[in-house]
Amino acid sequence: MAIDTLDARLIELLAREPRIGVLEASRRLGVARGTAQARLEKLRTRGVIRGFGPEVDPAAIGFPVTAFVTLEITQGVGEQLRVHLRRVPEVLELHTITGQGDLLCRLVARSNEDLQRVIDEVVCFPGIVRSSTVIALSNPVPLRLIPLVRHAAAGSAGGLPGAVVPGDVGTLAPVGEVDAGVGEGDTVPGPAEAEEPDQVGEVGEPGQVGQSRRPQRPLC
C-alpha cells in the first residue's frame, strides 16, 4: 500500500521527535489538526507505524558484541526451536532464510567470551544439526527506514515536485509548544467539527487534504 508525501513527512517528523503532539505536528506540517490526526490513525491502522517506543542501543547497556548465527535444523522442530530462542534474551532477531541453513539469528553478547556462552545456549536445542557464526566488526549503516519512506512517497507521486527531501521536516517551522503525546487523548474529529478550516502550507501540495480555496476572479 502506497504512502504519499504528507504521510512521509509525518513519519519522518515522528521518527525525529516521537513525543511531539498532534497539534504541534500539524503546525510543523502546515495542515489542520484534524488532517494530521486522521493521517496518523490511518498509518497506525495500516501497520505502517507500529509504535512510539524508544530505540535502545545494545552496546550502551553492556552488549557491544553483535553476531549472526546460521542454523540448520531437522524437519518438524521449527516451532519448538522458535519457542526456545525466544527464551534467550540475547537473541534479538530470528529470520527464516533460503540457501545454506534454515534460520538466521542476530544476537548480542557482553564480550567474545560471553558470546560463546550465548551460542552454547542457542545450539543446545536437540533439533539443530549444524550452526555457523560470524561476528560483526562494525555497523557502518545502522538500521534506517526514513530513506525508504522518502523513496516510497516519491514513487507514489511519480517523481512530481513535492517529494520529500532530506531536512524537509526539520525546516518547516521552529519548535513550539508540544501538545499531549501523539495519539494520547486526541481523536479524529467527527462531523460536528467539520467546520474547522484546513490550513495548508501551499495550495496544491501533494498529499495534503483540505486545501484552501480562493474565490475565482471573473474572466472579464
From TrEMBL:
Keywords: DNA-binding, Transcription, Transcription regulation. The keyword Transcription regulation applies. Residues 175-188, 200-211 have a biased composition (Low complexity). Residues 3-64 form the HTH asnC-type domain. One of its GO terms (biological process) is response to amino acid. Residues 175-220 are annotated as: Disordered. GO terms for cellular component: cytosol. GO terms for molecular function: sequence-specific DNA binding. Gene3D superfamilies: 3.30.70.920, Winged helix-like DNA-binding domain superfamily/Winged helix DNA-binding domain. InterPro entries: AsnC-type_HTH_dom (IPR000485), Dimeric_a/b-barrel (IPR011008), Tscrpt_reg_AsnC-like (IPR019888), Tscrpt_reg_AsnC/Lrp_C (IPR019887), WH-like_DNA-bd_sf (IPR036388), WH_DNA-bd_sf (IPR036390). This is DNA-binding transcriptional regulator, Lrp family.
